[in-house]
Specification:
Structural class: mainly alpha
Radius of gyration: 25 Å
Number of helices: 17
Order of helices and strands: HHHHHHHHHHHHHHHHH
Number of domains: 2
Largest sheet: none
Distance between the termini: 19 Å
Helix content: over 70%
Shape: elongated
Amino acid sequence: MQTGKPDVLDRIAQFLVLAVGLFALVFGLFMIISPLDWYTAIPTVITTGPPNKHFIRDIGIAYASCGFILLYASVNIHMRWMAALAGGLWLSLHGALHIYEVSVGICSPDVFVADAPGVLGPPLLVFVALGILFVRQRITPAGLPKAAVMKAIDNLNPGESEYMKDVAAAPGHAFEKMMHFSPAANHRHAAPVALFHAARIGATLVEDCGPCAITAAKGALADGLSRDQVNQMLAGGSALRAAEKLGFDFGQAVASGSPEAFTLGDQVEAQHSRDVRFELAMSAAIVRSYPAMKRGLGLTKSCSLTPMEV
């Protein structure tokens, strides 16, 4: 799942959704504001029959609505991927209608070819953008089927989905709410990767939940840290470089409620920025919720009972 700053491929996906959103919005507004001018501006439309301003505006509203949804999605494509999917739905169905019409002879192949770039191109770009995100697992789990999320959790750390089964079975859409909450513990935008994961693992170790610590460690590996760095964190952080040791100690201080969190936080802010301090503090605070939930459900396994190495 996406945690750090968006990379080049993330930005390409974002740009594709943004570009389609702008196209759909402008195209739709043109149809709504000046339907007869739009009718004469698109050569292939004239062959479909006389203009109907009401129907042209109806279609314009659909285009503009898709545009607004896609623009909304493009701001935070990793969290709002479902909005991008919804925004591309009507566009793709519109394209499917054109394919159907040419396949049954309602419209000629030359008309279809002329319309294809503007009709099939936009939804295709949206799905290319979503494909980039899905293949690289750069989306948040909110919106994914429960079975897919549970499988992903078990793939990361077998057996860890046990407490999530209780969440999935709870009434009141608890599972969906949990999926919206979870990304906050992984939020990293300004913090250096090693500093961030040192704080996160340090906070997890305070809670004495071995499986949780291994899950956090595997997240650090996925974010590019070496096994040696991660295992040093799991071993208590004493062998870490001073830069990462500061993050580890800060995470532990936040998780344990120690007054040292104030001093260590000031050092983090002085050496990096307040944004970095915020990201470390938020992750250290939120990551405690998972061991606490397991403890409440009677499912916690202490660090002493878990091989603390990846």
